[in-house]
Amino acid sequence: xxxxxxxxxxxxxxxxxxxxxxxxxxxxxxxxxxxxxxxxxxxxxxxxxxxxxxxxxxxxxxxxxxxxxxxxxxxxxxxxxxxxxxxxxxxxxxxxxxxxxxxxxxxxxxxxxxxxxxxxxxxxxxxxxxxxxxxxxxxxxxxxxxxxxxxxxxxxxxxxxxxxxxxxxxxxxxxxxx
Length: 178
Fold this sequence. Notes:
about 70% helix; Four Helix Bundle (Hemerythrin (Met), subunit A); mainly alpha; single chain
């Protein structure tokens, strides 16, 4: 059996080939979007490097105060303390981004200035220490607002799962490869 030199399709085959091609193109785009979304989400849920202890905020704070049966006055004070700390820490996040960009620029130079890199590293380390000190102070301030029983309830909830105060989760090998 020999095959013809040119392969031609009947006219009705062309009309069915176009939807198949469109489907395959859409499937390829969907797969590419899925891969891009997976790569992006692998970096989003992890705290930034050097984030240290995170303050409970939003629904987590409300849930913790509910479980501790905090009074409306205690709730207002806790929210006020954590909001003030968050405002202070937010300005440091902007400075941290600038320093990380500066570190990348220093590293990209033809000759890396070791003294400049070390000075920048010390500045970043000092800021992390200041952030940790501010976070700890906010937690201490809230500890004066709550009674020992309420603090015990909150500590037991935070120690049990993947919350900001729990031990860091190991990075999954698949997301580490991205």
